[in-house]
Amino acid sequence: MTTANAGAETAAETVEKDLTVFLVQRTGAEPDVDQDLFATGVISSMFAMELVVHLEDTYDIEIVGPELSRDNFRSVRAVAAMVLRLSSAEAT
């Protein structure tokens, strides 16, 4: 594993852990990183909007347009990947 890959993995793990803590605090549920958050009822469409605001404020990103796709919020891992992708895009 290269240093760049190790750094990306660490960043993804950090976002996943932070997001899991947020979900536990707000919903009382501790989802697995690959668990379907909608299918299991951990989050609803309404709560997803609260999550968007949290992510934008926490990671200084803007989630708009096609990024608001339900697939980007399907699991903790999917959300973390979107956050990292948007963070990288906004940094350039």
Q: Give the termini distance in whole angstroms.
A: 24 Å
Tally of structural domains: 1
Say which CATH homologous superfamily is assigned. ACP-like
Number of strands: 0
Order of helices and strands: HHH
| CATH architectural label | Orthogonal Bundle
Mean pLDDT: 89
Count of DSSP-assigned helices: 3
Give the fraction of residues assigned to helices: 55-70%
**Which class in CATH terms?**
Mainly Alpha
Structural category: mainly alpha
CATH topology: Non-ribosomal Peptide Synthetase Peptidyl Carrier Protein, Chain A
Rg for CA atoms: 13 Å
Unreliable stretches: none
The largest sheet, given as strand count, sense and whether it forms a barrel, is:
none
Gross morphology is: globular
The proportion of residues in beta strands is under 5%
Can you give keywords for this protein?
Non-ribosomal Peptide Synthetase Peptidyl Carrier Protein, Chain A, 3 helices, 92 residues, mainly alpha
Brief characterization of the structure:
The protein is mostly helical. Helices cover 61% and strands 0% of the residues. The chain is globular and about 35 Å long.
Helices, strands, pairings?
Blueprint: H1 3-27, H2 45-59, H3 76-91
Helix pairs in contact: 1-3
Describe this structure in words.
By secondary structure, the chain is mostly helical. It is 61% helix and 0% strand. The chain has helices at 3-27, 45-59, 76-91.
